[in-house]
Design brief:
The complex is a heterodimer of chains A (293) and B (242). Chain A is an alpha/beta fold and 293 residues long. Chain A has 9 helices and 15 strands. Chain B has 242 residues and is an alpha+beta fold. The chains are: A alpha/beta (293), B alpha+beta (242).
Chain lengths: 293, 242
């Protein structure tokens, strides 16, 4: 299986095969895309070719995580197909439906919907690229949601009552995905300022957000021993030199775990990767969907 | 917690994890040149091949003689079998084509729709096989099998072919006669040449032009072609008749 995640202009890949003790990583690496990269015009097919050439003996079966910037995300406070249709007529340009697929995921006891809007042309271009390399595409996921699968599969997060996945991003703009009782709770985008946090966007429930954001502010200004309103926080960054992530890990907060797949998976190669660099591969979590590690 | 999979069908996702992979993996067939030679087997094969080739020669000669003898009977049978298509009226065909045009915004994309002097060829595409199959049933006149769905992995095409005849002699033979019937609207780009008028506009604008022609009963006068250029935009060409 070849798991690929896109982060800005980088594609991380991790290739694993089933073994007696669970998945065995046989190859991993990253490819920088050309400056004018788009998923059309054979650009993506060329990236796939580079990856498959690394392991020609492996069937080209891919699981893909796209950069969060490739989709639009919204939420709806009422779970009904009829309501969605009405809402679309009221607030969405008629051209939008021609250009975008909308996938709606129920949460909070199915009372609300998380909507992911994916450009139809982008989806077709990805499928065309898979066809160009005679491959198979098992799934398409999105950034932090793919990392959340990793937290469940590598670190057994589903056994926890509540947990959060924290992506420390470029220009101090982070994302926090909160799961409670096995259900999606909220996705927050915020900016880390010198002494405080500025919340930029909230999708889903407001519950817990103030408390968790407050504790992140405590960490910025002082020492934080533990996140008290959530059982565990899985942190990672896809940046080349994530200083803030290093600081967070060095702070030794009791219930913060670095979301580094290499810590939990067997690897056949002798190539070593540092924990912080390993966490750059967190978003390949989609590649482990549906299997027990 | 749900697992996003944007390969699934759009809409509300009812299960937490969906399996809907798309595969273009080609099965590897064993290379015949790598099969170890088997001399005994080879001999048998050669003998059998000779036997088959002489049999097939007899069969061809037999079919040729039968063909000559029974040709008149077979040709009658053939023409009887094709007769049902003649029972389809032009009105039924127009009705089906209008349905294609009017429903195109909801369930599928019109790739092309061509009115030639002998038939109408329709090519639609969709990601949704269910709506495609449903539409195929509605379109198939007299269960003639002239409407087919192709494709897999959420990328489907429907091809339909209907009998058609240019019956009216009230042709559109110039831009003037075209504009007497149709108002194209300011958002439609138009190119007029000696032989045709070509319009490029949004799906709704082109549908409006098509319906104006249908209302003026001018669908059976000229050869026409509708083509998709990108999602939401169509090109519509009407050939001038003399």
């Amino acid at each position: 299986m070849i798991a690929i995640s896109q982060n800005g202009s980088y594609f991380q890949y991790l290739i694993w095969v089933p073994a007696e003790g669970g998945p065995l990583i046989i190859k991993f690496g990253e490819i920088k895309s050309p400056s004018q990269f788009n998923f059309r015009d054979g650009h993506f097919a060329s990236i796939l070719e580079q990856i498959t050439n690394e392991v020609p003996e492996i069937s080209p079966r891919f699981q893909l995580s796209l950069d969060y910037k490739n989709v639009l995300i919204s939420d709806t406070n009422y779970n009904s197909e009829e309501f969605l249709e009405w809402q679309n007529i009221q607030v969405i340009d008629p051209g939008f439906e021609l250009l975008y697929h909308t996938f709606s995921y129920p949460f909070l006891n199915s009372s609300k919907l998380l909507n992911i809007h994916l450009n139809k042309e982008l989806k077709s271009s990805i499928i065309n690229s898979i066809q160009d390399v005679n491959g198979e595409l098992r799934s398409i996921n999105i950034g932090i949601f793919s990392a959340e699968i990793g937290a469940r599969k590598w670190f057994y997060a589903s056994q926890l009552e509540s947990y959060a996945v924290w992506k420390m991003g470029k220009n101090n703009i982070d994302q926090l995905l909160i799961v409670k009782g096995g259900e999606f709770q909220s996705l927050i985008t915020f900016k880390r300022l010198k002494n405080s946090i500025k919340v930029l966007n909230i999708i889903g429930s407001n519950q817990l957000i103030d408390k968790i954001i407050g504790q992140i502010e405590v960490w910025i200004n002082d020492d934080l021993n533990e996140f008290t309103h959530i059982e565990r926080v899985f942190a990672y960054s896809s940046e080349m030199n994530p200083k803030a992530l290093k600081e967070l890990i060095e702070s030794e907060i009791n219930n913060v775990t670095l979301l580094n797949p290499f810590e939990m998976l067997d690897i056949s190669s002798e190539v070593k990767i540092s924990p912080i660099k390993g966490a750059r591969f967190a978003e390949v979590g989609i590649g482990f969907r549906g299997i027990d590690v | 917690m749900f697992d996003l999979n944007l390969l699934s069908e759009p809409g509300i996702q009812l299960s937490e994890s969906v399996d809907c992979s798309i595969s273009f993996i080609k099965e590897k067939h064993p290379n015949p040149s790598k099969t170890p030679p088997n001399i005994n087997k080879k001999k048998t094969t050669t003998v059998r091949q000779n036997l088959y080739s002489s049999n097939s020669l007899f069969l061809i000669i037999f079919m040729a003689i039968s063909g000559v003898i029974f040709y008149p009977m077979l040709s009658n049978l053939n023409s009887n079998m094709l007769m049902p298509s003649a029972k389809v009226s032009q009105e039924q065909v127009v009705d089906k084509v209008l349905k294609v045009i009017l429903e195109s915004k909801n369930d599928y994309t019109i790739e092309s729709l061509e009115f030639s002097s002998e038939n109408i060829l329709i090519h639609l595409s969709s990601f949704d096989i269910t709506s495609m199959k449903f539409f195929q049933e509605k379109m198939d006149l007299l269960n003639s099998g002239a409407v087919r769905v192709f494709g897999d992995n959420n990328n489907y095409s429907m091809m339909a072919k209907f009998p058609w005849k240019i019956t009216s002699d009230d042709f559109i033979d110039s831009p003037e006669s075209f504009y007497k019937i149709v108002k194209t609207g300011k958002n439609v780009k138009t190119v007029i040449s000696e032989h045709e008028i070509v319009m490029n506009g949004s799906t709704s604008d082109i549908i409006s032009i098509f319906l104006q022609l249908a209302n003026a009963e001018r669908l059976q006068t000229n050869e026409m072609m509708i083509h998709s250029i990108n999602p939401g935009n169509l090109i519509f060409a009407v050939k001038f008749s003399n």
